[in-house]
Amino acid sequence: CNSPTAATSSSTAGRVDNQNCDSDSGLAIEASTTYTDKNVVPESESPKETMDYINDHDKDNNQTNDRPTPSLHRAVFLHYLRCTWFAQVVYVISSLARVGQAIALGMLIEQFSFTEYNDDGRNDTASPSNVRRGYGYAGILVVCGIVFLLCKQRQFFITYRHGMHLRIGFVGAIYAKLLRLNSISSVTDSIPSGRIMNIASNDVERFLHASNLIMFLFWSPIEAIGVLILGIHVIGLSFVAGYGLLLLFVPLQFYLGKRFATLRSNVAAITDSRVNLVSQAVSGVRVMKMNGWECEFNQRIAKIRGHEMSKVLKASRYKALNESVYFFSNVAVSIVIFTVHVLYGRTLTPRNVFTTLTLINILQHAVAKHFAGAVMAVSEVYVSIRRIQTFLELPELSPASPWLLNFSNEKHETGGETHEELISLADATSYWGSGAVFNSLHRSRVHFKRDLSISSPEHKERASSHLGSIALSKITLCFERGRLYCVIGQVGCGKSALLQALAGELPLRTGKIKWSASSIAYAAQDPWIMDGSVKDNITFGLPMKQEWYDKVIDACGLLSDLRQFTNGDSTIVGDRGIQCSGGQRARIGLARALYRDSEVLLLDDPLSAVDSKVCRLLYCSAIMNLAVRRGRCVILATHQHQFIGNECCILMENGSVKCFGSYSDCVDSSNGILTSTLQTSEEENDALELQNNNILLQSPVDKEQGSDILDKACDFTAENDHKEIRVTGIVERSTWVAYCNAMGGVWVFFTLFILFAITQTSALASIAQIGKWAEQKDQDSPSWLRLILVLGATVVILSLLRGWLSFYFLIKASQNLHDLMTRSVLLSKIEFFDTNPVGRILNRFSADVGICDDILPLTIYDFMVGAFIALGSIAMTIVVLPFMLLAMPPLIWYFIRLRRIFITTTRELKRLEGLGRSPIFAMLGEANSGVATIRTNNSINYFRDRFEKIQDAHTRAFFSFVASSRWFAFRVDFIAFLLVAFSSFFAVLFQDQGWFGVDPAVLGLSLTMLLQLAGTNFPWIVRQSAEVVNQMVSVERISAFGKLPPEADLTVKYDESAKSWPANASIKVSNLTVRYRASLPSALSDITFEIESGQRVGVVGRTGSGKSSLVQALLRILEAERGKIDVGDVDISKLGLHMVRGGMSVIPQTPVLFSGCTVRENLDPFCEYDEHAIRNALSDVQMMHEIDDIPEGLDSIVAEGGSNFSVGQRQLICLARAILRKSKILILDEPTANVDTRTDELLQTAISKSFVGATIISVAHRLESIIDYDKILVLG
């Protein structure tokens, strides 16, 4: 016996063996839950072929000059034809089989129309030939049904599988594109991460539905013409009247499709904004909570969501109209045909009535269902392809960038001349946002020694309209082997820009860059850490070389950290390295660059995030010993000038090289900028260093608790803390109740149920009356005509009302669930964000919400409509043929058993598929934020391979789901056709024996309904019932996020009596113990200290001593497990969170700016301050001049991740935000780590001036910045 999923491996062609069935539900369940672990993806189902096709098309588009806008639509369509040609042939055969059914039904009903019975109830007209003829027609009816069944399942399997290939292939193409994007381009900056996530979740989902329906755009009109010819032959020209009415629905469907496409495009853009805003809130959750902005973000998300839902509701009305037209079209068309037929003096007979009704059903599906559905699907997928193409056409980096040079990752021995030139720049000029120059990607292998020159008129012309602010201006430099080059200068002078240009990440507008090195490694200023182990982040896809690895770990000061981690270097660091301190992230980033052992190392200020002792270790052991003295070229951007001796220095100023020489030369050329650093004599520096070390030595490292891994909840005893929880078993009753309540309650559900029942009863009554009408002698009686018309009008009105109300309440449920989830997530505890990657959270807000918005309402509606049709059909059959009750029990038993197997299997597969999506979104998010690190460290192939493995895991579950659906549909179809077979043969038997006096009209109606049920409705109904359960998994996942344990109350009654808090800024911490989670050791243990109001206190300690934990405890990001904190003589645990956080200002270690907002909104989100106050705050932090240089000034939009500002500038803007609030307590978590010493001094002066009388707590690695503070708090 084969399980449903066994179909996936039954053939290398990926074909389902529909003859193999599984009678053991336990086997099916086991297969579903273990498939993704035990089976491999069939080669034919791997997305690689489709990905290669899309990538080749994308490359051709980028290299095409004769066509300015190459069409991805055309490429997808040609791919569709190539992959689904066999489905087209199969569909033609299935259509002919359905027509054969209609003819056979008419002939069978005719046999009953001339039956007469004697006094004994026997059939006087029955003869062996008539009986044989009756059985023959019944046999033809069944045989045609079986042919239709086999063809239909094959057709849908082929097309659905192709849709799956397109969906997965496009996700892979999006990821590949992310790895090639020019991250500096102004065009790329305008693409928020939320939009990328939305494209990869909702837009690609449209291919699944569209792939099934696109073929009907061509075949439905042909099928309709064939039905027209046959209909004229059966009932005459009156068929043309009904046919014309049905054709009138076609322009309506095109109009609805066009309107729906417009709305779909609008909704997609709004969804992008919503998901992007959620992404910002989640990524900057600590900043959001520290500033008490949860409600503000919730309101902004709710506002966007309200706008989105207004469009979704409008689109749903079009869907409701389209579905209603499909439902009442057969009734309306039938009434028109038969009325015209009678008015022209023709006579209706049961044969032509029920043959015509069957043809109308075929026509209804061809035009009102399939063709209309195809129009809608094509409208949706057209918008999706356009959005995808827009993304795929974004500018890429130069084909000469070093990450495309196929660098070898083998260890390089020093060879050749000691000072061999490795990189050189000649008159290089570059602009921020000029990346649109490069729109092509050349993958051929090139020689390492390559010039990149783009000073041609053609390139200049292409670049002219895309220039932003200048990044580098006429740079001419050369870098030699075995030398250390220190790049110095003030914040925003161009240090990072120079390193990005050398790495190939910042394209040149003019000039040349020449790479002679065989390999380059890069450590970013804001180190990018992927969600994996410490070892994975350091090796970064390279083979493990234990001896070299140990040297790198030791030189980067990570050995003590790894000893303290429960799992050593196998410890999972979390999404974006959230579980590590800033210093640990910086050292991991540096270790990654060193481990690659490249000829050139580009290090963007890795020393600022660590204390002076560790800083010296990194400089001497890592940079000098492992790199420079081994013949490597190291280019180091730094603000730590104390280590610069006789090294070559590059002083940057406004994107230009001010001086290239010794440090003394740079000081002389700096116009006083570097004077303060020079004035500190070597002896004074040594004394300061000794004093710093003595303080730190007072904080011994506790090997059990002394790590910032604990400071950030990183005692990973198990990797499971970071794995998404997988729910198993049935969808809980609570999920259904939650969805019902979100709709409006039980009364709404009951009202809709009654409305569905009344509408279906009206439809059955109208068809039954038409059958009775055909038996009447006075068919042209006005009373009959009025009755038929009234029933038809009732069906039309009720079906429209049912559709509109159903979609309204179902979409209302989605809105309410989303709002509940949003509030719950924003108010949840910080541990939720520490253990759930951003991609996983965004998966709920994009893919799952998209299902609840678009797919689930239609699925529920389809199921409810079909369920009532099925109940009516079966009831009619039992009334006509009571002996069918004998056949029903075994069929019902088999159906229930089959459905239980299917739902159990597909429910788990759907959950596995949902779990498989989360890593995909996580890697998309990682690629979007860490693409520069990935590329410059030559790890593109490694990440592509990782992504393909993740996609394969997702494909295993999804393809199993597709195969299981077809496995089940075949068997359900078979049950339906058994009903048709039993009914047909029993009817002939009853006619022959004279049992029960079968009424031809009622029998005809019964068989017509059963054929409709068997042909399309029954398998669709059962499939939709299973789909409702499967899609309720998304409701389950959203509801789970709607029940997250919240933080303490934002406001409490006590706040009213403490409006003037804090009356004074004193802080008293008593026996404080905090931990991140109950399962982890304490981050702070029994801490006691007191700070008087107005004092300035510096907080120092080794990495992992609990400095950041203390900051979070003061703001109640972490709640006290024992002890308490009194601020202003009030226990802060008695206050609401907004009162506590509003009374303090904090500048976090990692600067966060919210993209899509203006600079002004980032400083003053609640519009509490005037222009003068904002400009003064920026002037205090030396940023007003830089802001004024931007064309829009304060109203300039902050790019994704704040990328249009340097890390140092972002820190200064965050400091200005704190100065604006002028709180009585200021908490600084190493805010000036990424600024130069002179700027640091100016900022300290600005802080002293702006916060006169305030209590200041400053976490610092630079002891000189806090040496004159009132107290020093040493943590250990």
Description:
One of its GO terms (cellular component) is membrane. It is a multi-pass membrane protein. The chain has 1276 residues and is α/β, with parallel strands linked by helices. The protein folds into 2 domains: 4-394 and 729-1041, ABC transporter transmembrane region fold (Up-down Bundle), CATH 1.20.1560; 1053-1275, Rossmann fold (3-Layer(aba) Sandwich), CATH 3.40.50. It is 59% helix and 9% strand. The chain is built from 37 helices and 19 strands. The protein starts with 24 loop residues before the first helix and ends with a strand.
CATH architecture of the largest domain: Up-down Bundle
Overall morphology: elongated
Q: What is the total number of structural domains?
A: 2
What is the gyration radius calculated from CA atoms? 36 Å
CATH superfamily of the largest domain: ABC transporter type 1, transmembrane domain
The helix fraction, in percent, is 55-70%
Distance between the termini: 64 Å
Main sheet record: 6 strands, mixed
Just give the CATH class of the largest domain. Mainly Alpha
Percent of residues in beta strands: 5-15%
CATH topology of the largest domain: ABC transporter transmembrane region fold
Low-confidence runs (pLDDT<50, min 5 residues)? Answer: 1-39, 115-126, 403-416, 434-467, 676-692, 695-721
Overall mean pLDDT: 77
Physical arrangement of strands within the biggest beta sheet:
6-7-8-4-9-10
How many E-type strands? 19
Structural class: alpha/beta
Number of continuous helical runs = 37
